[in-house]
Amino acid sequence: MDSLDVALSDGSVHTVDPRPADYVRFERHFSIPMSSLDAGNASFEHMMFLAFLGLKRQNIYRGTFDEFIDFVDSVAATPKAETTTPAETSPPEE
Fold it and tell me: Domain spans of the chain?
């Protein structure tokens, strides 16, 4: 999942990295599995809700989701850089 860059109306900008608990709350709220979403059927409301959950989890925002909608200037998804894992190496044979 991408990170979300959130600009609030107070001028602050935050990055949200959704966590598993956010996904569970998302699924409970919308009654749809995260695995069913892709670029074609994910709504802006879905992205806003994940941003809301992340900022609440970080204790940056404390209001309701409906209040949050009015407090946000912009939300943008930012692809996470792909991380590579070092190739596995076998110990030298003796």
Answer: 3-78
**What's the whole-model pTM score?**
0.80
For 1-38, how does the pLDDT look when each residue is reduced to its tens digit (9 = 90+)? 689 999 999 999 999 999 999 999 999 999 999 988 87
> What are the structure tokens assigned to 81, written together?
């850089």
Q: Starting at the earlier edge strand, list the strands of the sheet with 3-8.
A: 13-16, 3-8, 72-78
Per DSSP, 11 falls in state S
CA–CA separation, 60 and 10 (whole Å) = 12
* Pairing assessment for the beta strands 3-8 and 13-16 based on DSSP bridges: antiparallel
